[in-house]
Amino acid sequence: MRGKPAPKRKINPDPKYNRADIGKFINYIMQRGKKTVAQKIVYGAFAIIKEKTQKDPLQTFDQAMKKVGPSVEVRGKRVGGANYQVPFPVRDERRLTLATRWILDASRKIKGKPMAEKLASVLMDSAKGEGPAVKKKEDVHRMADANKAFAHFARFG
C-alpha cells in the first residue's frame, strides 16, 4: 500500500428517517451535487412502496439490502505468474456499497418510468429475493463457489 489510506468521512444521516445508511444511499443516487433531487427520488420511492405494499418502506429497504448484499466475492490474485480468482469474504461496509450499486444499476437500466418508480420496483423485487440485483449477487456467489479450489491463496491479515 502506498501513501496513507483515505480518511473515513462521517456520512450525515438523512433528514427524514435520521439513518446513516439511507443518507449514504441518497449520496449514491445523487448526481452533479443535486442532493435535494436525490432525496425526492428516495422518499418518492419509499412513498410508492408504502402505497403498494402497505408495509413500512424502511423494512422493505432493509430486507432488500440484506438480500442483495453478497457474503463472498472473487478478487484477482497473482501467484507465480498466473492470475487466480480467489474468493474473499466481504466486509460489512463493502457489502452495503455493492448492494447499493447493484440496486441502482438495476433501477437505471429500466426505461420509460420516473426514477422513483424504478427504484421502488427494484427495491420491492429485491426484498422478495428476485430481480436483477439479486441475480447479480447470485452470479458473484456462483463465481466464488466455482473458484473455491483457490481459496487457500486468500491471506487474512
Annotation, overall tally of beta strands: 2
CATH fold descriptor: Ribosomal Protein S7
Q: Kindly report the name of the CATH homologous superfamily.
A: Ribosomal protein S7/S5
Number of helices: 6
Structural class: mainly alpha
Helix coverage percent of residues?
Answer: 55-70%
- Order of strands across the main sheet: 1-2
Strand content: 5-15%
Radius of gyration: 18 Å
* Shape by Cα distribution: globular
- What is the string of SSEs from the N terminus onward? HHHEEHHH
Q: Which blocks of ≥5 consecutive residues have pLDDT under 50? A: none
Helices and strands in order:
Layout: H1 20-29, H2 35-53, H3 57-68, E1 72-79, E2 82-89, H4 92-109, H5 115-128, H6 132-146
Antiparallel strand pairs: 1-2
Helix pairs in contact: 1-2, 1-4, 2-3, 2-5, 3-4, 3-5, 4-5, 4-6
